[in-house]
What does this fold into?
Amino acid sequence: MIITIDGPAGAGKSSIARRVASELGFEFLDTGAMYRAVTWGVMQRGIAWDDVEALVQFADAACLVWQDDRIYLDDQDISEEIRTPQVTSHIRHLADPPKIRERITAQQRRIATGRDIVTEGRDQGTEVFPDAHCKIFLTASPEERARRRQQQLAQNGRAMTVEEILTAQNQRDLEDRMRPVGRLRAASDAIVLQTDGMTPDEVRLEVLRLVRERLEASATNSASGGTSA
Ligand code: C5P
It folds into this structure.
C-alpha cells in the first residue's frame, strides 16, 4: 500500500509522514533526501552545474539507499551533510532535468516495491505513484510556513528573521512549481489539507483520520469489485 504526502517547503510533510508511517506500521520514504543526496554528490565531485549530460550520468550511476531513516550515497551515510543551505540552493540543477527525474523516480518505485510505505515529496501522487491508495497534499500559507521554520531554527540556536526565510522559501516554491516535469502540485484525486492555525498534533490526527478513511474506502471498493466480477 502506498500513501503519498506532497506539498511545498516547510509544510511539515516529513515529520507528519514519519509519524503517520510509524502509527500505521508503514515504512517512510523522504524523496527530498534523494534529490539532496545526488546534489551533494555532484558538489563533492565538482561537476559543473550546466553540464547536464555529466549530471545525468552521475545520477544514473549513483547508488542511493534509504534505510532506517538514513540516506546513503554509494555506501556513505550522508544524512546530515545533505541538510546544508548550499545543498538546498543547488538542488534545482538535479531536480529540473526530466532525464534525472526519470532515474530518481525509478529508484523511488524500486524502493517502494512490495512495501507498505508513506512517501513524501513534491510529485509522489502525480508522477511517481499515480495509483497510490491515498494521496494527501499538505500545505499552509507562505507566512505560516516561514513562521514555523523560524521557530524551528530558533530552537536549534539559529536566528533568522521571518522575512529572510520567506524570501528564500518563495524562491524555492517558485522553482518547484515551474519545473517542466514533477512540478509541485496536488494530484486531481488528492485530499488538500490546509494547515494554517493547526498544531502539529492536530495535523497528525487529521492526516491519520483521512488516511484511514481512504484506505477503508479503497478496501471496500476492491472487496465489492471482487464480488461483482
Ligand atoms: O523535501 P525537501 O525540502 O528536502 O526537498 C528538497 C528539494 O528537492 C525540493 O525543494 C525540490 O526542489 C526537490 N524535490 C523534488 N521532488 C521530490 C522531492 C524533492 O523535486 N519528490
Q: What stands out?
A: Residues 29-115 form a domain with the Rossmann fold fold (CATH 3.40.50.300). Residues 9, 31-32, 35-36, 91, 95, 121-124, 172, 176, 182 surround cytidine-5'-monophosphate (CB under 6 Å). The longest strand covers residues 134-139. The longest helix spans residues 200-228.
